[in-house]
Amino acid sequence: MRPTYHLPEEIQQQIWKELLRATHDRHHGWRTPVLATASANGIVNARTVVLRRAKQVEGGGMLEIYTDRRSAKVAELVEQSSACLVFWSAKLQWQLRVRADMSIQTDGPYVESLWQIVKQTRAASDYLGYLPPGEPMPEIKSSDATDKPNIDDAALSDENEPENYFAVLTAQIKEMDWLELGLGRHRRARFAAGQCQWLCP
Ligand SMILES: Cc1cc2nc3c(=O)[nH]c(=O)nc-3n(C[C@H](O)[C@H](O)[C@H](O)COP(=O)(O)O)c2cc1C
């Protein structure tokens, strides 16, 4: 049986425990939130991402996501840094909506240190694509397919280290909206600026 948390502080602590757990546990429902963004002209967009890091600090916290710096989400976040991350765990029956101010890091010692780790993994190819994400694929003639390496192989087999497009998105949390689905009743609470407010679900 799942424990029930009654005090807002207990719920908030548990939310952070689950966020931390999700950064390590591939099977955790909160491992893959949906990141929603909006561009300056009001067009909205949303996509699944992987939660890489979670850190609670006094009065707030931060979350981290890795991406290709050429992706649409990065351009959208440059235009409009306010974004929303939506998490759902069927096991916990918890939804978490995080309103955040997003920043993008594409270089510097921190990004480089992470890249040194990521580049040793299979995920490295996510950040080495010859063409940007969302770009139409060039037409490959069947005669080309046999005697030419594919685009990713070409990038990886370069004698010099291939250019990477690895970027780190950091979400500075402004507000968390937690919803628990229960059998008889649901519970909802908002955590913002160090305060908790129970809300009608
Ligand atoms: C389970 C899953 C996890 C994903 N994780 C990431 C991720 O961590 N970072 C990322 O940039 N894209 C990730 N993607 C791909 C994105 O959902 C999206 O297709 C891609 O980033 C392009 O999005 P954009 O054009 O809106 O920027 C993931 C997709 C799935 C299905």
Automatic annotation (TrEMBL):
Entries under Gene3D superfamilies matching the protein: Electron Transport, Fmn-binding Protein, Chain A
Key words of the record: Flavoprotein, FMN, Oxidoreductase
Domain of life of the organism encoding this protein: Bacteria
Cofactor(s) listed: FMN
Pfam families hit by this protein: Pyridox_oxase_2 (PF12766)
Keyword Oxidoreductase among record annotations: yes
InterPro entries xrefs: Pyridox_Oxase, Pyridox_Oxase_Alr4036_FMN-bd, Split_barrel_FMN-bd
Keyword Flavoprotein on entry: yes
Residues annotated as domain Pyridoxamine 5'-phosphate oxidase Alr4036 family FMN-binding: 15-104
Annotated protein name in UniProt: Pyridoxamine 5'-phosphate oxidase family protein
